[in-house]
Specification:
Elements lengths: L12 E5 L4 H12 L3 E6 L2 H11 L7 E4 L5 H15 L4 E4 L14 H29 L3 E6 L3 H4 L5 H20 L5 E8 L5 H7 L3 H9 L9 H12 L9 E5 L3 H6 L10 H11 L4
Parallel strand pairs: 1-2, 1-4, 2-3, 4-5, 5-6, 6-7
Helix pairs in contact: 1-9, 3-4, 4-6
The structure holds hexanoyl-coenzyme A and NADP nicotinamide-adenine-dinucleotide phosphate.
Amino acid sequence: MGPFAKDLLQDKVVLITGGATGLGRAIAEKFLELGAKLAICGRREEVLKAAAEDMSKLGHQVYYKSCDVRDPAQVQQLVKDVEFHFGNIDVLVNNAAGNFISPTERLSHRAVDAVLNIVLHGTFYTTLEVGKRWIDQGITGTMLNIVTTYASTGSGFVVPSAAAKAGVLALTRSLAVEWAPYGIRQVAIAPGPFPTEGAWSRLSPTPEFEQKMINRVPLSRVGDPEELSNLAAYLISDYAGYINGDVITIDGGEWLKGAGQFNELLDVSDEQWDDLAKLTRKGK
Ligand code: HXC
Ligand code: NAP
């Protein structure tokens, strides 16, 4: 049982980049359950094939194609093939990403490019390829970009990702205006920590790192992929038709805690507050 009617996304054709693993896969499964027709891509053929076979049990047959979003020629072929297979595309989900933690001064230019090319250029290429077709053919559609909370705030130690995701957020907001006259809607989701194999192996590689991550979240837990996929389903549905150019944060309040200068005072006990009250009223 979920919050939606079973036919919320009936026969909508959705292309999800990176749809075979992690959050992309959770989104894919939710969309299938709600009646969508799905195409997924990624670089690893065998991972895509296994995921597509598995997921096809949930609804329509899942179409998959290996594609490196860093290569515009591969992106062009992917979009052509998906359109040929289903007849059209209604929704593009830009979910594919690359990331890892590192002090910035340790990065080579190739390491910077590895992340920027997937996240910023890859998202731009798919957006262009699908958007041009929609505009040429007079088709309306929705683009959903998966960013991060630090797309807005920036973050040390994941700087290529922060810069690239900020670029994707700017793309979302810019096209929300420019392509609205064509009936093309832009939305984004900024997830906080959701444990996936891809993210955790590169960003939270030990239990200590994971605990630190959880400690930063006011709700004291990580996200459940189902919470994110429900949000994604709503955002691409016709019920969200008036949301355009916005980014919805789903992070248990994490970025707000990180942003406020005095947020660390969450650790002060009741007794300590009693003492502090005396100290801070001294001047009165
Ligand atoms: C420093 C690194 C590195 C690391 C790679 N490099 N990993 N440098 N620290 N951990 C350097 C390499 O040494 C090389 O530079 C250059 O980057 C390219 O490395 P390749 O391994 O050849 O790159 P490639 O095969 O293209 O792989 C791309 C990748 C990889 C981004 C490096 O991690 C990947 O495929 N990721 C995809 C999945 C992913 O990242 N998922 C997590 C998304 S989570 P030199 O100079 O040596 O040649 C997310 C938000 C999370 O985005 C927010 C959490 C709260
Ligand atoms: P993930 O499982 O590693 O997902 C990344 C996906 O992108 C993989 O399926 C990967 O497949 C694909 N991909 C990577 N490079 C690609 C390329 N060049 N071309 C095509 N596909 C490529 O990690 P995830 O946690 O689910 O992340 C999904 C999205 O959520 C990302 O946008 C990430 O930034 C965002 N996010 C995640 C979290 C979190 O806590 N998990 C938090 C904030 C934001 P291949 O390797 O087979 O190509």
